[in-house]
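Hey L., structure's done. Input below.
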Amino acid sequence: MQRLDKLLSGTGKWSRREVKLLVKQGRILADGAPAPSPEAKYAPETAVLSVDGEPVMLSRYTWVMLNKPAGVLSATEDGRGRTVLDLLPTELQKLGLFPVGRLDKDTEGLLLLTNDGQTAHRILSPKYHVDKVYYARTAGRLEEVDCRAFESGMTLEDGLACLPAGLEILSVGETSECLVTLREGKFHQVKRMLAFRGKPVLYLKRLSMGKLPLDAALEPGGFRLLTEGERQMLQNGGKGIV
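Output:
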């Protein structure tokens, strides 16, 4: 059983102060009756809640999609600078969210945050081979021989063995643009693989994880809760995202 204000603030749509006002105005129905107080407790699995007549979907866990901007750390706390949690409102920060994997400080794009540790662990597990697609801009001219090197897998100068990956060239010139598809997520892997081919990365952004793309409407630093359909993708231990 959880307090009504905690349940509703956990959706990211209202703060606890706003829930208190909504209750006072009689705009929240709980199991068909006006909610008596923000402190009233309900079971998230069975409670039927609505605000202004609109049903509220409750879940035990929270999942957030973030368009991570450059300069922010993929961590819950870090004394060196701002973290992705600092981009969220206070009510979401209180839910124990953590990043599902990480993006480098200067890398942008899709990052999931959740408090569902079991599903997050399975999504990151090599067992499920969740493809991650990145857009990269590199120095130098990418060539088909680079694509073949990615497809074959490579061992870097420092001994790091990289599984076969995808490299799709979008444009070439003094700088080149490409899409890189990985099935693993080793430290700085996209940057290290392209640097090994003599094409150092100038800009990097993650576009998707499995079947889940970054919402094009999210500006850098923007976020939203996953939709019910997106959450369904993550069920069964993350198998649906593959």
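The first helix runs from residue 4 to 9. The CA atoms of residues 86 and 130 lie 27 Å apart.

-- N.
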